[in-house]
Structures are given as structure tokens and as C-alpha cells.
Design brief:
single chain; alpha+beta; Methane Monooxygenase Hydroxylase, Chain G, domain 1; 6 helices; 3 strands; about 10% strand
Length: about 180
């Protein structure tokens, strides 16, 4: 039951949601680092849509950043390899929708299908960005074609190195997401 001013209650709700989101983000990062066979697709199935979309975008930003690092080290195929992996992940998500419910109820399938389609939409954009980077032969991490993309990056919190947050970044604008 709500007690007090509506604004106070909503502020408390917002604060609680931020605490839960940060905890889930840190759990994702911990899981990603621990498991040898970490599969984001399985992790996505088990989480809320907001968190699944966010971590998919964090994962994409991380993969692209690694490709730029590899390009810098002389691997001229790094971005093409990342594009192939991106297309494979997209294909896996599309197959999940086509295959339909696999041992879950119709209500669970409806929620999972909605989440999966939202992720597919984001992954199509991610694929298109990568195709554009490959087509234009972009090799510099500081190129406007890359810097102008909305990127979600993991950042260590200064006061507590074991806690991470996610920052949204476009060019020189940065906003803490969680």
C-alpha cells in the first residue's frame, strides 16, 4: 500500500528500480566473466526485456570495440569477423521466433517472443551499422561513423572497483544508464 505523497512514493520506486538494475548488471558482468561457455541468448531468456536489451547492446559495443582494437593490431578482417558473428546471433534469434515455443506455456512464449522480436529489431540496426563500417572500410575507433553511434559501455565505479555501471555514449556525450 502506498503511504505519503505520490511523488515520494514514485521517487522511492525509481530508486529501488535503479538499485535492482545495477545489481542485475553486475550479475551479468560476473556471469560473463566466470562461464567459459557464456551464451547471451540463454541469459536474455531469463531476464526482463529492459535488461536483455541493455546487455545485448553492451555486448555489441564490446565486440565492436574489440574489433577496432584488433584492427589497430593489424587484423584487417576483424570488423568482417565481428559482422559475421553479429549476423549469426541475429539468425539465431530469428530461428528462435520461427521455431516457436519449446517446452514453455503459451503465455510464457508470448512474453519471450515479444522480447526476442525487440532484440531482433536492435540487432538488425547493429548489423546495419557493422555493414556500413565494413563497406566504408572504417578502421579508426575515433571515426565519426563509429563515434556517432549510441554505445553502451561498462564502467567501473570510482568509489567501488567491484561495482560496475553502464554508460550510454554518443561522441563526447556520456550519461550513466544505471
Amino acid at each position: 500500500m502506498c503511504v505519503g505523497e505520490v511523488e515520494d512514493w514514485l521517487r522511492q520506486l525509481e530508486t529501488h528500480m535503479q538499485v535492482v538494475l545495477k545489481a542485475e548488471i553486475n550479475a551479468y558482468i560476473d556471469d560473463m566473466g566466470k562461464e567459459q561457455d557464456f551464451r547471451i541468448e540463454k541469459w536474455i531468456d531469463d531476464k526482463t526485456m529492459q535488461l536483455a536489451l541493455l546487455m545485448d547492446q553492451v555486448n555489441w559495443t564490446s565486440e565492436c570495440s574489440k574489433a577496432f582494437d584488433d584492427l589497430e593490431e593489424g587484423n584487417d578482417e576483424a570488423m568482417r569477423i565481428t559482422l559475421r558473428l553479429c549476423k549469426q546471433k541475429l539468425e539465431n534469434m530469428i530461428t528462435k521466433v520461427i521455431d516457436g515455443p519449446q517446452g514453455i506455456s503459451e503465455a510464457e512464449w508470448k512474453a519471450l517472443k515479444t522480447k526476442t522480436i525487440a532484440i531482433i529489431t536492435i540487432q538488425v540496426h547493429e548489423r546495419d551499422v557493422l555493414e556500413d563500417l565494413v563497406k566504408k572500410n572504417i578502421k579508426e575507433v575515433n571515426s565519426f561513423a563509429w563515434q556517432s553511434q549510441l554505445r553502451f559501455e561498462i564502467a567501473e565505479e570510482e568509489e567501488n572497483e567491484n561495482r560496475r555501471t553502464v554508460n550510454a555514449r554518443v561522441t563526447d556525450w556520456v550519461q550513466e544508464y544505471s
